[in-house]
Amino acid sequence: MKAVVCTKYGGPEVLQLREVEKPSLKDDEVRIQIYSTTVTAGDCRVRGFSPPPMFKIPMRFALGFTKPRKPILGVELAGVVEQTGRYVTRFKEGDHVFGSAGFAFGSYAEYSCLPEKSALAIKPAGLSFEEAAAVPVGGLTALHFLRRGNIQSGHKVLIYGASGSVGSYAVQLAKYFGAEVTGVCSSANVELVRSLGADRVIDYTRGETIGSGERYSIIFDTVGKSPYPLCVSSLTDTGTYCQAVMSASHVLRGMWTTVTSGKKVIGGVSTERPEDLQFLAGLIEAGQLKPVIDRHYSLEQIADAHRYVDQGRKKGNVVIKVR
Ligand SMILES: NC(=O)c1ccc[n+]([C@@H]2O[C@H](COP(=O)([O-])OP(=O)(O)OC[C@H]3O[C@@H](n4cnc5c(N)ncnc54)[C@H](OP(=O)(O)O)[C@@H]3O)[C@@H](O)[C@H]2O)c1
């Protein structure tokens, strides 16, 4: 089969399209013929080996010392179940599915095998394979952090980085949960963030910032760019500051804030559970959630897609058409 192999850590040119063995199927797995995958910000981090400094040593152990131990990158996928292992009960051959391979990666390829217990679900009928591939990572991450912030109807929620993949889902999910949502983005994305349902938009490129009297139950920084002291002082007395990207200084300051006040600071890696992906599929089918797609590339153009995502300016998601 065709697959993109990450030959070593480095720039996008380390990604090479090659002919490799089709993966063999275990008894508890499904083999998926992949129609679409994506390039996430996390894929670029792994390729370039640029985790936040505090994670550099543990990540070398987890991912591989000089090159990725799992050379076929790619987390998200959508495709058709080609074959099922003999213990599989949730899926059958021919099912249209979408999901996340998590740290198993392997989605930059024509086929991938995933345990049926992984974050995999039947693709919503109204979504194309390209759209469906763009849901799992951003959608599950947004859901994870909003739930950890104990989002409630009527909460005031601020989403920093509202135009990225995680942010665009976070705005829509926070609205679904009944929150009053403010999004932070650049001028170029103000209309997009409004169209996703944000009640208010703060345009950071025009020098706008959180007003001094504003108080939020949840501040969710999806991109690691928010000003820490201003965000903490803008939380309600029991508010939560969620950070999808956490620097070492924020970890320490977060512990101090959590211990010394009623406010909480939360980071870490989001969980990816099949029932949560099913929940997102239900919202998509009900017309309450939609993926934002910025650009499409082919598998052959994947280095160009990585170059684009490396810039950190994508609007929503970047999709790779495999088939
Ligand atoms: N913790 C976890 O479990 C977890 C899971 C998934 C992803 N992540 C991480 O979450 C981060 C976000 O990923 P992503 O795919 O949503 O997006 P991304 O590609 O990292 O970010 C793109 C967006 O960030 C916005 N942005 C850039 N600088 C900004 C700033 N100073 N203020 C506000 N917005 C800014 C850009 O909009 P403008 O051009 O408008 O600025 C763009 O739309 C990544 O670092 C990823 O690795 C963490």
List key phrases describing it.
alpha/beta, six-stranded parallel sheet, binds NADP nicotinamide-adenine-dinucleotide phosphate, Quinone Oxidoreductase, Chain A, domain 1, 15 strands, Rossmann fold, single chain, 323 residues, 10 helices
In the predicted model, the low-confidence regions spanning at least 5 consecutive residues are none
CATH arch. level architecture of the largest domain: Alpha-Beta Complex
Number of helices: 10
Question: What's the structural domain tally?
Answer: 2
Structural class of the helix and strand makeup?
alpha/beta
CATH superfamily of the largest domain: Medium-chain alcohol dehydrogenases, catalytic domain
Report, as a whole number of angstroms, the end-to-end distance: 12 Å
Oligomer: single chain
Strand content: 25-35%
Q: Indicate the CATH class of the largest domain.
A: Alpha Beta
Shape: globular
Distinct ligand kinds: NADP nicotinamide-adenine-dinucleotide phosphate
Would you kindly provide a brief summary of this structure?
The strands form 3 sheets. Strands 3, 4, 5, 6, 7, 14 and 15 form a 7-stranded mixed β-sheet that branches. Strands 10-9-8-11-12-13 form a 6-stranded parallel β-sheet. It has a two-stranded antiparallel sheet with strand order 1-2. The protein is 28% helix and 27% strand.
Secondary-structure blueprint of this entry?
Elements: E1 2-6, E2 15-19, E3 29-39, H1 41-48, H2 56-63, E4 76-84, E5 96-100, E6 111-115, E7 120-122, H3 129-133, H4 136-148, E8 156-160, H5 165-176, E9 180-185, H6 190-195, E10 200-203, E11 216-221, H7 228-233, E12 235-243, H8 248-260, E13 264-266, H9 274-285, E14 293-298, H10 302-310, E15 317-321
Parallel strand pairs: 8-9, 8-11, 9-10, 11-12, 12-13, 14-15
Antiparallel strand pairs: 1-2, 3-4, 3-6, 3-15, 4-5, 5-7
Helix pairs in contact: 4-5
The structure holds NADP nicotinamide-adenine-dinucleotide phosphate.
NADP nicotinamide-adenine-dinucleotide phosphate (NAP) binds at residues 40-42, 45, 137-138, 141, 160-161, 163-167, 184-186, 188-189, 204, 222-223, 225, 244-245, 269-270, 309, 312-315.
